[in-house]
Amino acid sequence: MKKKGLWALVSLLLAVFTVWFVIKRSGMSFTDFAASLSAANPLWIVMGLIAMLGFIFFEGASLLQIVRVCGYPQKIRRGFLYSASDTYLSAITPSGSGGQPGIAFFMMKDGIPAAVVTTALIVNLIGFNVGLLFHGVLGMILGHEAFLNYNTLGKVLIILGFVVFIGLTVVAALMLHHREFIFRTAIRFTSFLHRIHLMKNPEKLHRKLERIMEEYKTCVDVVSKHKGMWFRACLMNVLQRFSQIAVTVFAYRALGGKGHTFSLFGTQCLATIGSTCVPVPGAMGVSDYLMIEGYQQLMPRDFSFEVQMLSRGISFYSCVIVSGITMVIGLLLLGRKNKK
User: Which of 21, 86, 96, 92 is nearest to 272 (CA)?
Assistant: First the structure.
């Protein structure tokens, strides 16, 4: 818990510095940005906020699809909580998978077995990567000119994003279809820890791992037969990413931008895949850099900073706040339930 608190503080300081740096680099003041924001079209801002909530909702819907076929149906609000915990913890930890323990925590508190939770996380990870890669390819199609005009660093980050997420998809698929290798590796690792006197009684853990792997095998066999579930889970992740990227278009329209809709959407796709693979909490700094560099190819420099600030404010900062509040409410309700 202390470690999470430390990362939350680091993330807050990084967020403040990032916003300050973007404002300073743009040459405008907070007063200037506030004036632009006050003149923005509220309808498009509301659309952006709805899209932001869609980002949380659709991941939760994907997770619910997976656990349902394993025999553990949950209500929509639980899916929203699972996703919110993932979003919040991912934003304050340097790893993109930092939110998965949050999902696992709330799922297991809902009585979902560890094997089912593991299966759900792996299947959802595959869907997550499919969603990103889909929009990465879409970005190359719609924003190919933006990609060609990125500087060397921008191009490297985008290409690295493709490589990383293709690799993660392959690893996740191997985890589903090569369970015995994972089990043997875990046994060898714990036996090694025992030999160097860092673990006592590894046999007890081996028996527990064997039981979990048997349950995991059963879950994987179940989900492998449900092709419809795979399609729906991947679709939910595609819609999740679409919701996030659409915020940029809504922010652009809110501030009075016209035209460039598809090019802007494609540019944001590239910025997203190029920043998500970087091990920085919330990709702060990296995402801002790729967004601004891409936007400036489509609109005046000053306006690109305004769009970036509003888009990032809705799609990331507001999303993290909503997710954090949702997670706290979930923890409070869980504590009240335990007391009863």
Answer: 96
Position 42 confidence tier, pLDDT thresholds 50, 70, 90: very high
Residue 36 lies in a domain: no
For residue range 166-178, list pLDDT tens digits in order.
Answer: 887 887 777 776 6
17 falls within a domain:
no
Least confident of 9-18, 230-239, 260-269, 315-324: 9-18
| pTM as predicted | 0.81
Q: Give me the number of domains the chain comprises.
A: 1
40-62 burial: b if 16+ Cβ within 10 Å, else e: beeebbebbbebbebbbbbbbbb
> What is the Cα–Cα distance from 111 to 119, expressed in whole angstroms?
15
Residue 88 structural domain: 42-339
Three-state SS string over the chain comes to CHHHHHHHHHHHHHHHHHHHHHHHHHCCCHHHHHHHHHCCCHHHHHHHHHHHHHHHHHHHHHHHHHHHHCCCCCCHHHHHHHHHHHHHHHHHCCCCCCCHHHHHHHHHHCCCCHHHHHHHHHHHHHHHHHHHHHHHHHHHHHCHHHHHHCCHHHHHHHHHHHHHHHHHHHHHHHHHHCHHHHHHHHHHHHHHHHHCCCCCCHHHHHHHHHHHHHHHHHHHHHHHCCHHHHHHHHHHHHHHHHHHHHHHHHHHHHCCCCCCHHHHHHHHHHHHHHHHCCCCHHHCCHHHHHHHHHHCCCCCHHHHHHHHHHHHHHHHHHHHHHHHHHHHHHHHHHHHHHHC
305 Cβ contact partners less than 8 Å away, ≥ 6 residues apart: 22, 23, 25, 26, 28, 292
**One-letter amino acid identity for 48?**
G
**Residue 32: inside a domain, yes or no?**
no
Decide if pLDDT at 307 tops 60: yes
